[in-house]
Amino acid sequence: MSPVGAPTPPAVGHSRWRAILSGNVLWLSVVSLLNDTASEMIYPLLPFFLVGTLGAGPAFLGVVEGIAESTSSLLKLGSGWFSDRFARRKPLVLGGYGIAAAVRPLTALAAAPWHVLAIRFADRVGKGIRSAPRDALLAESVAPAVRGRAFGMHRAADHAGAFLGPLLASALLVLFARDLRTVFALAAVPGALCVLVLLLRVRETPASPRARTVGMEATPTSAGPAFIRYLLVLGLFTLGNATDAFLLLRAGDLGVPLAAIPLLWAAHHIAKSAFSVPGGALSDRIGARATIVAGWIVYSATYVAFAFASAAWHVWLLFLVYGLFYGLTEAPEKALVAGLAREGHRGAAFGAFHFTVGITALPASILFGVLWTRFGAPAAFLTGAGLALAAAILLPIVVPRRPV
User: Fold this and answer.
1) Which CATH class is domain 15-398?
2) What DSSP letter does each residue of 63-131 carry, written as one string?
3) How far is 13 from 342, CA to CA, in rounded Å?
4) Which backbone phi and psi does 142 adopt, to 5 degrees?
5) Count of C-beta atoms within a 10 Å radius of residue 258
6) C-beta separation of 399 from 341 below 8 A
7) Which of the listed residues 98, 235, 254, 325 has the most CB atoms within 10 Å of its CB?
8) Integer distance in angstroms from the first to the last C-alpha of the chain?
């Protein structure tokens, strides 16, 4: 058995790249790009719609997002296990994307704040249902030696959609005289295309007889002891990984004008997309574990730099470097999940992975906000940097090169 998270031989010739640039990896990437385009046509405008059009307050916005994300985290835990138990991924993936595509444009018809709450709740239900089975399906669609590249391509497409969606929304706002409801309604187009591509092009991967037998006994914690230790270290890192909204707040403090904030965010998404495939390829070459450690060290160094930054141009540079952190971690973290998970438990493993990240994100942001308020921004950023560095040191210690 080859080491988990350890270096694998480089892909030979173009055949491995052809396997990634076709089949499920290609089409799931297209699905993600279209879905994120539809989502990001609405999401950045939602606070203005809630407060300016429907008369809700900032507190209600917090309630909406808190309920939505908590629901998503819990469902990710269950949907992965369900896909293992019945050895089928595509129906859950299709259902999750379908729910989101159907309810998201209904924002255009919202007449009260609670309508938006219901729509966001349903949208996150869709995300919770699809995420773990989708990642398991993607992992099972390629050879282990190229999983990093496969997840990297998927993440690159996801970030590209997050960049294209706001641009498309801005263009439509100009075209339709700042009519938010029309923009929300037109988000149905990429959403419908997303579901159509998934329905027609993505294929179920056949499960082995052993995987079917084992999957009937799968639980979110049955992927193995090494995997559980990985989740604990991941939780430690995530505790220092607060919402990126704090980075935007820091940008404003350091002199980046409000009008330039969307451009800064767009540049960040471009960097994330650009680094995703190289980061996944590096994971295939030197090992997922080593690549994640490198990414967490980049994160720690970037947070230290944010703590001591003193000019607007520092922020622009740091946001680009911060994109490198995503490239070195998003795909390799999922590749390591796929490598550590036992056969027949991969869906449950991805569910536990997503749940760990989602459930730790809330206390991480609360901790960061409290530290910023009580001791200032540098203290908050340095705490996040310290937690990330501790996780980077622990990961090679607690996650062996082979599963145990």
Assistant:
1) mainly alpha
2) HHHHHHHHHHHHHHHHHHHHHHHTT--HHHHHHHHHHHHHHGGGGGG--SHHHHHHHHHHHHHHHHHHH
3) 30
4) -135, 165
5) 8
6) no
7) 325
8) 12
> Which residues neighbour 171 within 8 Å (Cβ) at sequence distance 6 or greater?
none
Core vs surface per residue 171-194: b (16+ CB within 10 A) or e: ebeeeeeeebeebbbbbbbbbbbb
Helix (H, G, I), strand (E, B) or coil at 343: coil
Nearest CA among 356, 2, 287, 50 for reference residue 147? 287
Domain ranges within the chain, ordered by starting residue: 15-398
How far apart (Å, rounded) are the C-alpha atoms in residues 21 and 236?
35
Cα dihedral sign for 54, 58, 60, 66?
Answer: positive
Please choose, from the candidates 44, 316, 278, 319, the residue with its C-alpha nearest in 3D space to the C-alpha of residue 151: 278
Q: What is the pLDDT along the chain (404 residues), one digit of tens a residue?
A: 444 544 444 444 456 666 676 789 999 999 999 999 999 888 777 767 877 788 876 556 556 655 666 778 788 888 988 888 887 899 999 999 999 999 999 999 999 888 988 898 899 899 999 999 999 999 999 888 899 999 999 999 999 998 898 888 888 888 887 788 999 999 999 999 999 999 999 998 876 444 444 444 555 555 678 899 999 999 999 999 987 878 888 888 898 886 677 778 888 889 999 999 999 999 999 999 999 999 999 999 999 999 999 999 999 999 999 999 999 999 999 999 999 987 778 888 999 999 998 888 878 878 888 899 899 999 999 999 999 999 999 999 998 765 43
- The amino acid at residue 50 is L
d(CA 72, CA 331): 20
